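job 3f2a | input accepted
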Amino acid sequence: MSLPCGQQIGPNDGEFWKQLSMKIHSQRIPFLGGLALTHRCNLSCIHCYAREDHPDLAEFELNTAQWKKIITEAKDAGCLFLLLTGGEPMLRGDFSEIYRFAKQNGFLVTVFTNGTLVTDKIAGLFREFPPKLVEISLYGASAEAHDRITGVPGSFDRARRGIETLIGLGVNVGLKSVLMKWNADEFPALNRLAHSYGAKFRVDPAIFPTLAGDRSPLDLRVSPELAVANEFSDPGRAGEWRKFLDQFRGIRSPENLYVCGAGINSFYIDPQGFVFPCLMVRKVKFSLLSGSFQEGWDQAFSTFRNQVPDADLPCGNCEQKLVCGYCPGFFEMENSDERVHSDYLCAMGKIRYERINSETMGV
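job 3f2a | predicted structure (363 res):
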C-alpha cells in the first residue's frame, strides 16, 4: 500500500504490514487521507487539473477551524497518514497552523508543493515538526523548460531555493514531474538533478481534463510508446514489474468495479469540504459542512464499493490489467464515465506487458 505520492508505509516487517493491511481493509478504516487545502496557485501550469477560472476561490474554501474539525474527526475515524496538497497549499495564510495541528495530533504528514513559497517560517516549521515527505514538482531541469510550463518566470529558481533550503535542514524531500510533450527531453537531466540532491524522483504520464471540464490538457500527453519508454529508462523498473507480475499473475481479479483502496482505506477532501473516495472519483461525495466525517465515510461510500463492472467492459479478464494502471476513477476523469475504459491506459498496458515479457525472456 502506498500514499498518493508513492512512498511505502508501515515498518519493514512484511508479516506485520500484511496483518495490519488486512485489518484496515476488512474494517474499512480510513487510514490514508488527502486534503486539498486550496485550488489556488501562484503558478499557472499548462497541464494542471485543478485549474479553475474563478476570481474568488478563497471565498469558498474551508476556514481554519473547519479544517481542524475535519482533521480531528478523521483522526477519530482511524486516519494516520495525511497528504496536504492544493493548488499550492502554502498560499493559505493558515498553512502553518493547519500543518502544526495535524502534526500535534499524531499524523504522519506529506506535503505536495511547487517549492516556490518555502519561506524561513515554513522551513522552521518543518524543522520543528518534520514531515514524512515534502514532494516538490519540477517540470524541467532548466529555468527555460520549467518556467515555460508553469507560466511564471523565476519559478524554477525559487523552487530550487526551496529544495535546497529544506534539504539543508534535513527535511525528507522528493521530486516529481509530469511527462508531457513540452518536457519529454528533460528527464535524463531531471534524474541527474534529483540525484545531485540525494532525492527520490518519480515521473507520471497521467494528464487529465481539468476539474472544470477543460479537455485541452489532454493534447499535452505523449504517445503511449514514449510514456513506457521513459518509464523503462530506469534500469530497475523492468525488474520491479516482473516481480509484481510473478506475485499476482493468476490471482483472480476482484469482481468489483473498483479494486483499489478508494472508499475502503483512503479518501480525498476538496477545498470546499466535500469528501470523495479519491481525487478522481467525482460523482460520489458528501459535504462535511452538513455532517461529520464518520457520517460521510459510512453513508456516502456505503454502496460505492459494491459496484460491479458492466459485462461489456473489456478490462474484466484482460491479462494486461495488472500492468495497465486500470482505474475507473481515471476513466471518469478522462471520459466522464467510470464504466468507459481508457484507450490511453489500455495502449500503455499492452506495450508495458510486451516489454516486461520480452525483457524477461532476454529478447
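job 3f2a | The domain at 23-222+258-306 is CATH 3.20.20.70 (TIM Barrel).
job 3f2a | closed
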